[in-house]
Design a protein that fits this description.
Low-confidence stretches: 802-809
Number of helices: 50
Mean pLDDT: 89
Structural class: alpha/beta
Distance between the termini: 90 Å
Radius of gyration: 37 Å
Largest sheet: 8 strands, parallel
Strand content: 5-15%
């Protein structure tokens, strides 16, 4: 009795679940109740374990109505014709003049020029008065084919022909048609068997093909006939070694059909006949792997398909085709390539030629061979605006019925069917009689599903005649009414965005975010490891959780984004559970999303483009996406930057819309605007209205830009409240309610599991969120902060098993002095540190207690927070500044105290040891190795270690091995740390390790710096010194240094070192195994496969306006500030935003590091302005522009002082280059920089420059003296930015003025940083030429030391440290690349060309050798 409940006691949602289950009201009532039962059990378990209860399952949410705009309420109108292509010729129904000789585009001319037939007729214009002007008559050149087909297809069911192959087989039964007949006279001596190549009969037996054409026209009564060109592509003809005959096959196949049609039309001009150029699928597939073992393998590329289809189209049109038919499509990617090629031809020719498309559903599943449904197939190709779409082949009419019905319901243009004569029998023949086939097609006519009908395999003229006689009794299908356009996406299945509701019942498209390197650490690890199979599981899980679309982003500096995107997509399209949804291809580089598009058979979304690249490039990118049929995300950016206010959002989106719709002809329904969700609740008044601005802008944009969608990065909105998920999700729920239901927002990249509905919010939080999001009250941020604090306290209390905790406000200045110092250290506040230290000193028995007590307590907190990722490097450096200021204040008191103690002991104060370091946690020696001058990273590590009570002896830069060992002994350090930036430093580190071993050192050796890696440390350095007592360990960055050093100096050292030893042993084994597995071309093979630029077609850049050497000493720091790339600046400080807030300026929006990044940037701006004002840093450089040619063997570049010296073949010097040798999976060439310079006989040139920033060392010294590490490192970081910006600035001056090969270049600074100009500027010692000794050649040539004061160290590091040098290549085909590992045969050749000892060359090239040096 105790367990009985009254119905009124039930929660509303539980009551509904029970009603549905008991009375069987819904199909999923049982499933819903099982989910609720699992939840109740989880609550019981959580209570037992003292954990917070799980989230209650929602059940099915009611669907909320989509906000409607005026254009949504317009009633559909009757269609008068199928959707038109966007070309002017199509829109104006301009008749095809049939004067193909006037089509002179270079690509069309190139195909004709290489054809196997020349001088044939390609013009088919008829006299305008040949036949009467009114329908049903037709005259080529006078009348529009599009208009005629529309009239024909709307007045009767038009008749297509039947099977060509069946008719050829029937002919061969009655007549001799064997190998000899197939060859005919022209191919009698062909080198392989050709019987079965039906298309070649158009050349070898034209009378046979023409008889078949006429039979279909006269006996069958066909209005249209397909050409005998199903396999007439270079790809398919490769089976017969007849690739060269592709144009001729198409031309002859179309010409014979043209003649037959004209002959029959002349007999009855009231029934004109039309030639349909048949374009088959080829015998290869773009979406399907030919290898069971490798799902990413393909035997053809999209570009190869486009190329072969384009040639076919030229031949068909030149042969007289009226219409083009892409048919028997079993892989939609092939169809998209064919349609792309047709689109290119129509663009180049300016013609309007109707296009038909016919898909093939391979079995009763109703899907193509590549897995698409009929609806998805149509959605994927509808962007090409085909005039007629339908199905053919594979099935008989009876089996096609359900699929024809479904297709007829969705297709906006005309529809057709040409089925087989039933299913094949045991002998491969077809048994349906003409009467059978006609009767089975009747259902299509009765239901009004078709506008054209014909036959495929097994059908003959009698079959077509019988079908025609039945079809004559029925009306054709009516074109569907034209309503508002919708975004229609597709994977294996189709998806109409306007019809979607998510799991909350909101009219909102969930785009899954987890297949994104920046958004998922797990996904990143999988991609870096090449584990694409497991990555697919992440995609599947998102779809299970409610993602309608999968976002794919593989942007990462350590990953080849182009290759990774292609491989991921190629595998994903073979995974049915992944490929069933559309993809969003997401990348920062347009070429990456373009490459991904070429492997997607469905209709994708591309994320993103914007006007920030300039209007012309914006149009180019949009036009290309339109040709591929992709939808696009357009960011609210323009040339001036990011839109923040409502007015700016609306202005930029409206401008983008007008350009896209009016200039590009982009379908408005395929545009998704992202007007930038920005952060609210920051406490800054100007940010308070950002949420309202977005919501209002959304509605206005949708009002002013009909049919567009709105998306946004929702997480940006609330990052000020990070760490409290409940608060953040609540803010998002309120924001989305307003944005979606009241303003019409449509799309978002989300994790579907994290979305909350407004109805699930607590009343107090909901009100606070409303006030914050809609900016209703001035104290909205404060109220939300109070709620956030309460939630944090509640979480902590819950963790400890208690209840809620009441929070009491208190200023940190009210704390006692020791706590004030701790707070100042953690927060980097130096304002009160002297007075607080003084007060603390009086509370302690001696000054040292202040350091060992509150100051070290504070720094320990800093170290813990930094190690946990809760503080960031700039904060730590500021903390160190506070610490140093405090210690500097205490030092005089401590020295005096020691002095008095010595006197009291009767000792002389002169014996006082100023270097007493006994109070530190450990002692570390830090050194930048010989020849290297870069020390920012080392300085940062030193500060971080110092913050954790380690005594750091920083002995500077360019430290010889002898000095490092000497100082390590002198200071009796516990750990030695080596740093280096340039590749020669790696070899020097090996030397130091060997010498430490010889000298019997026992200190652990730490390795760090930009050029170092864990792999190099494990393979090259570690074997020379590593033991359990003194390991060699690679330290990735400053945040890892404390953990490593503390582990080495703790009682757990042995376990820690053993783990690393085992890891390094395994890495070495993998590395050497990898060398055995990896194949390298011989140097001779690599040279044979070099990049071969056609310098006649794309000649070298014109001669420079100013040859020789030019000193650059008039450029001010202020001049280069606009050219600064701030991304490396933040990387220096180890601040990295996560997707979607990677890079500058998006990093400011990042929830984790945004605030610190903004503070750091503001500090940098302050110092920058001071440097500009006082001139404390200056810039100087030197440029050289010289005549140059590639050497005779193609491996080096000869430099000449003058043109006369070039003529005399008397080089001033030569730059020796290195070539790629590691085998590639693609057909890409094996590159060397020498490939970019023309050989002798051409007047080519090579540029070079060296630039430096002076004055940094003086600033660094000044800040060191004031114990200000933060400002010291800031100065070094800015100097690096200045010199890099100077290089960017100077490269532009070279291109536009000094060399002048790009005088019309008008790129802004952002475009320059994205390398959108012609030419490259690789630096010696970097991936394209990883040999630093080539710097010496440059230095001697342009006299960098004499003219610019720049020197080279022993290891060829440039001095001053903030220096840049580069070679300047101007040819548009020059490109950046990495040489990678090379073989001994190339190294021997290189040493001989440089006239250097082989062992010395091997030392300089050590990091890239694919073999072990002797």
């Amino acid at each position: 009795a105790n367990e009985l409940l009254d119905v009124d006691e039930l929660d509303d949602d539980m009551r509904i679940l029970c009603e549905n289950l008991v009375f069987n009201k819904t199909e999923d009532a049982t499933e819903d109740m099982l989910n609720r039962t699992a939840y109740e059990r989880a609550c019981i378990d959580a209570k037992k374990k003292g954990l917070p209860p799980p989230r209650k399952p929602r059940g099915k949410m009611p669907q909320r109505p989509r906000l409607e705009f005026d254009y949504d309420k317009v009633e559909p109108k009757p269609a008068t014709e199928p959707p038109l292509p966007s070309s002017e010729a199509a829109r104006n129904h301009t008749p095809n003049p049939y004067l193909n000789s006037s089509l002179t585009h270079e690509k069309i001319a190139e195909i004709r020029a290489k054809a196997t037939i020349k001088g044939v007729n390609i013009d088919y214009r008829q006299p305008a008065d040949l036949y009467p002007e009114s329908f049903p008559h037709f005259v080529r050149g006078r009348d529009s084919v599009r208009e005629y087909i529309t009239s024909l297809f709307t007045s009767q069911i038009a008749i297509y022909d039947g099977a060509m192959g069946t008719m050829i087989q029937n002919y061969s039964k009655r007549n001799k048609l064997d190998e000899e007949e197939y060859r005919g006279e022209k191919f009698k001596d062909w080198d392989c068997n050709v019987k079965g190549n039906n298309d070649m009969l158009s050349i070898s037996q034209p009378q046979v093909i023409q008889e078949i054409y006429k039979a279909y026209l006269e006996e069958g009564g066909s209005n249209l006939i397909g050409t005998n060109t199903f396999s007439s592509t270079t790809i398919a003809m490769a089976d017969y070694n007849m690739e060269a005959y592709a144009y001729e096959l198409n031309y002859e196949g179309a010409r014979l059909a043209r003649e037959a049609c004209d002959e029959v039309t002349a007999k009855d001009p009231t029934k004109p006949r039309f030639v349909v150029g048949a374009i088959g699928p080829t015998n290869r597939t773009g979406s399907i792997s030919p290898s069971v073992e490798d799902p990413a393998a393909r035997n053809v590329t999209f570009d190869e398909l486009v190329e072969t289809y384009f040639e076919q189209v030229v031949g068909l049109v030149d042969g007289g085709a009226d219409i083009l038919m892409v048919e028997t499509i079993f892989d939609t990617l092939n169809a998209k390539a064919a349609l792309f090629a047709i689109g290119e031809f129509l663009e180049f020719s300016g013609l309007d030629i109707p296009v038909f498309v016919s898909g093939t559903l391979v079995d009763q599943s109703g899907r193509t061979l590549s897995g698409q449904t009929g609806e998805a197939f149509y959605a994927s190709i509808r962007h090409a605006k085909p005039m007629c779409v339908g199905l053919n082949c594979a099935l008989g009419a009876k089996h096609m019925t359900p699929f024809v019905e479904r297709l007829s319901k969705v297709v906006e243009c005309f529809t057709h069917v040409y089925s087989n004569a039933g299913l094949p029998n045991a002998m491969g023949g077809y048994d349906d009689t003409p009467e059978d086939m006609a009767e089975q097609n009747r259902v299509f006519f009765e239901n009004g599903w078709l506008n054209m009908v014909g036959g495929c395999c097994g059908s003959t003229p009698p079959h077509i005649k019988a079908i025609r006689e039945v079809a004559e009794n029925y009306s054709p299908r009516k074109l569907p009414d034209v309503g508002r356009p919708k975004m229609w996406l597709s994977g294996l299945e189709d998806l109409v965005v306007e019809d979607v509701h998510n799991q909350l019942g909101l009219p909102f498209l969930n785009v899954g975010e987890r297949c994104n390197i920046s958004g998922s650490i797990r996904f990143k690890k999988l991609m870096m490891a090449g584990d694409y199979g497991t990555a697919m599981d992440i995609a599947k899980k998102q779809i299970e959780d409610g993602a309608h679309v999968i976002d794919i982003n593989v942007d990462d500096g350590m990953l080849d984004g182009l290759a990774a995107m292609q491989k991921f997509v190629k595998i994903a399209v073979t995974e049915p559970e992944v490929a069933k949804v559309p993809f969003m291809l997401d990348a920062s580089k347009f070429e990456i999303v373009e490459a991904g598009l070429k492997w997607c058979q469905g209709k994708c979304i591309v994320n993103s483009i914007s006007l920030k690249v300039g209007e012309e490039l914006f149009k180019e990118q949009a036009t290309l996406l339109k040709k591929h049929g992709a939808a696009v995300v357009v960011m609210a950016f323009d040339e001036e930057g990011q839109a923040a206010t409502e007015e700016e959002k609306v202005r930029i989106c409206k401008r983008s819309y007008d350009v896209l719709v009016n200039d590009v002809g982009f379908p408005p329904e395929d545009i998704i605007f992202d007007p930038n969700v920005l952060t609210i609740g920051t406490g800054m008044e100007e940010h308070a209205n950002y949420g309202v601005d977005f919501i209002k802008a959304t509605k206005r944009i949708k009002e002013e830009c009909p049919y567009v969608k709105i998306s946004g990065g929702i997480s940006n909105l609330s990052f000020g409240f990070r760490g409290v998920t409940k608060i953040r999700e609540s803010i998002h729920a309120v924001f989305l309610k307003h944005a979606i239901l009241e303003s019409g927002m449509d799309v978002g990249i989300v994790n579907a599991n994290e979305l909350l509905d407004v109805s699930e919010l607590e009343p107090e939080i909901r009100v606070a969120c409303e006030n914050l999001v809609m900016n209703k009250t001035e104290d909205a941020t404060d109220v939300m902060l109070e709620l956030t604090t309460k939630e944090k306290a509640a979480i902590e209390a819950f963790k400890k098993g208690g209840g809620t905790s009441e929070v009491k406000e208190k200023s940190w200045r009210d704390f006692e002095p020791k706590k004030r110092l701790e707070h100042a250290l953690v927060n980097g506040i130096s304002q009160y540190v002297v007075e607080d230290v003084e007060e603390a000193r009086h509370q302690c028995s001696k000054p040292l207690e202040v350091i060992e007590g509150p100051l070290m307590d504070g720094m320990n907190v800093v170290g813990d927070l930094f190690g946990a990722g809760k503080m960031f490097l700039p904060q730590v450096i500021k903390s160190a500044r506070v610490m140093k200021k405090a210690v500097a204040y205490l030092l005089p008191f401590m020295e005096e105290e020691k002095r008095q103690n010595l006197i009291a002991q009767g000792l002389s104060p002169e014996d006082f040891d100023e270097d007493d370091d006994s109070n530190f946690a450990g002692k570390v020696l830090m050194a930048t190795v010989k020849g290297d001058v870069h020390d920012i990273g080392k300085n940062i590590v030193a500060v971080v270690l110092g913050c954790n009570n380690y005594k750091v002896y920083d002995i500077g830069v360019m430290c010889s091995c002898e000095k490092i060992l000497e100082k390590a002994k002198e200071y009796n350090v516990d750990v030695v740390g080596l740093s280096g930036l340039i590749t020669p430093s790696l070899d020097e580190m090996v030397v130091v390790a060997k010498e430490m071993s010889k000298a019997g050192f026992h200190q652990p050796l730490l390795i760090g710096g930009a050029t170092t890696s864990k792999m190099h440390t494990a393979v090259k350095i570690s074997p020379n010194y590593f033991s359990l007592e003194h390991p060699v360990i690679h330290v990735l960055d400053a945040s890892r240094s404390v953990t490593v050093v503390s582990s080495l100096l703790s009682g757990d050292k042995e376990e820690f070192v053993t783990d690393i030893m085992e890891e390094y042993d395994e890495m070495r084994e993998d590395y050497y195994a990898g060398l055995e597995d990896r194949y390298f071309l011989t140097f001779e093979q690599a040279k044979e496969n070099k990049l071969k630029i056609d310098f006649d077609t794309t000649p070298p850049a014109p001669a420079p306006r100013k040859l020789g050497i030019t000193v650059i000493d008039d450029v001010k720091v202020a001049d280069v500030v606009p050219y600064i790339d701030w991304n490396p600046f933040f990387q220096t400080w180890e601040l990295r935003g996560r997707y979607p807030n990677r890079g500058y300026p998006k990093i400011f929006n990042d929830e984790a590091v945004g605030n610190e990044a903004r503070k750091l940037f503001d500090d940098a701006q302050g110092m920058l302005k001071q440097i500009v004002a006082d001139g404390s840093m200056t810039l100087k450089g030197v440029v050289g522009l010289f005549p140059a040619n590639c050497s005779e063997d193609g491996e080096d570049v000869h430099i000449y002082e003058t043109e006369e010296a070039r003529e005399a073949k008397s080089p001033l010097t030569s730059f020796c280059m290195l070539r790629q040798q590691a085998e590639k999976e693609s057909d890409d060439p094996y590159l060397s920089q020498a490939d970019f310079i023309a050989p002798a006989g051409y007047k080519d040139h090579l540029g070079m420059f060296a630039v430096a920033c002076f004055g940094c060392d003086e600033l660094v010294k000044m800040h060191e003296e004031s114990h200000d590490d933060y400002s010291k490192i800031m100065a070094q970081a800015l100097a690096d930015r200045f010199v890099e910006a100077f290089a960017e600035y100077l490269h532009r001056v070279i291109r536009v003025d000094m060399w002048g090969y790009a005088p019309e270049e008008h790129l802004d600074e952002a475009d320059l940083l994205k390398i959108k100009y012609d030419g490259i500027r690789p630096a010696p010692g970097y991936p394209s030429q990883p040999d630093h000794t080539e710097k010496s050649t440059m230095w001697n040539l342009i006299k960098a030391k004499e003219f610019a004061g720049m020197e080279l160290s022993e290891s060829l590091s440039m001095l001053p440290a903030s220096s840049v040098s580069a070679l300047v290549f101007a040819h548009p085909e020059s490109q950046y690349f990495a040489v990678g590992q090379i073989g001994k045969d190339q190294v021997e050749s290189y040493a001989a060309r440089k006239k250097m000892e082989l062992s010395l060359v091997e030392r300089w090239l050590s990091p890239i050798l694919n073999y072990e040096r002797d």
